[in-house]
Design goal:
178 residues; alpha/beta; 5-stranded parallel sheet; globular; binds NADP nicotinamide-adenine-dinucleotide phosphate
């Protein structure tokens, strides 16, 4: 069970998650979109550090700066938007397609394998059966060190979706009702 955004009474919400964990109502607790400042702050004052932090993570936004902070707290990085929802020519990216051709895999499969192989858990969304099958078939091959290095160079270090510090985004997201 995760907190979606670090806004509002997220400490109160986190305490409720800790209680749910203790009473066996859930098996793991965590956060999402908690960037460095919120993540470090939260970890100073909780009993159970987040098991997971779900962040936008894909080949163009690899969350390099967040990884040591997550590792330090034993928090697993989980990728939302692991295929960048197809943005930025994702599925026809020449680095991904050329590497994929060597292994008879698609760009999507190479991109997911890159995440898995670098210790990131990924939750791709797929509505077609073909995509779902492709996305499961990433455990029967391994990228070489050179492939990993080439894909690492695709990182831009910035979001393709949203600036979480933008006041208009904060107003929008905090106005959503369950
Ligand atoms: N925590 C957060 O703030 C947050 C934010 C955004 C998203 N999420 C979650 O993250 C998960 C996935 O992220 P997402 O939906 O944003 O995007 P995504 O997984 O990066 O991309 C989904 C898109 O990729 C296509 N696709 C999937 N597999 C493919 C393949 N093998 N080849 C080609 N195209 C493929 C899908 O098409 P089809 O549907 O046609 O198969 C869909 O259009 C969802 O569960 C979502 O709820 C969380």
């Amino acid at each position: 069970m995760l907190i979606h955004q670090p806004f509002g009474d997220f400490y109160g919400t986190y305490r409720a998650l800790e209680a749910a964990l203790k009473s066996g109502k859930c098996r793991a607790i965590g956060v999402s979109n908690f960037f460095a400042d919120r993540m470090v702050d939260l970890c100073q004052f909780v009993e159970v550090k987040p098991h997971v932090n779900q962040l936008e993570t894909h080949v163009f936004q690899q969350q390099a700066a967040m990884r040591p902070i997550l590792a330090e707290n034993g928090t697993q990085l989980q990728a939302w938007g692991p295929l960048a929802e197809g943005k930025n020519g994702f599925f026809t990216n020449p680095v991904l397609t050329e590497i994929g051709a060597k292994y008879h895999k698609s760009a999507a499969q190479v991109a997911l394998r890159f995440l898995v192989q670098s210790g990131v858990s990924a939750i791709p969304k797929a509505s077609s059966r073909d995509h779902m099958e492709q996305n499961f078939a990433v455990f029967d091959f391994a990228l070489s060190a050179e492939d990993m290095e080439q894909i690492t160079k695709l990182d831009t270090g910035s979001s393709l979706f949203v600036n979480h510090s933008d006041p208009n985004f904060v107003k929008y997201i905090t106005s959503l009702k369950a």
